[in-house]
Amino acid sequence: LHCPCHASEFDPFAGGKVVGGPALRALPALPLGQDGNLLVVAGRFTSRIGHPQS
Questions:
Q1: 22/33 Cα distance (integer angstroms)
Q2: Which uninterrupted H or E stretch holds 11?
Q3: What is the mean pLDDT of the chain?
Q4: Inter-CA distances, 27 with 15, 19, 36, 43, Å
Q5: Which of 8, 10, 29, 50 is surrounded by the most beta carbons within 10 Å?
Q6: How many other C-beta atoms can be found within 10 angstroms of the C-beta atom of residue 16?
Q7: Nearest alpha-carbon partner for 3 in 20, 51, 53, 48
Q8: Distant-in-sequence, close-in-space partners of 34: CB < 8 Å, separation ≥ 6
Q9: pLDDT tens-digit map of 42-51
Q10: Rounded percentage of the chain residues whose pLDDT exceeds 70
Q11: Is 50 helix (H, G, I), strand (E, B) or coil?
């Protein structure tokens, strides 16, 4: 998965692991579910979103 915002490549099948580019950590995942014909958020992000603390 290419992310132009991070200028990096991530593997969505390996927990968002960085496979190329300057990103230093995996993308947080957001669990999804289905409610009828709708795609809905089914839980919290798997890790902290945003810039890591310095």
A1: 31
A2: strand 8-11
A3: 92
A4: 8, 11, 28, 16
A5: 10
A6: 19
A7: 20
A8: 40
A9: 999 988 888 7
A10: 96
A11: coil
| Among 1, 51, 48, residue whose Cα is nearest residue 29 | 48
Amino acid in the structure at residue 30: L
For Cα atoms 13, 18, 21, give the angle at the middle one, nearest 5 degrees. Answer: 135
Query: What's the rounded Cα separation, in Å, for the pair 52 and 25?
Result: 9
Q: In the predicted model, is pLDDT for residue 52 greater than 90?
A: no
Domain residue limits, the chain: 2-41
13 phi, psi to nearest 5 deg:
-90, -5
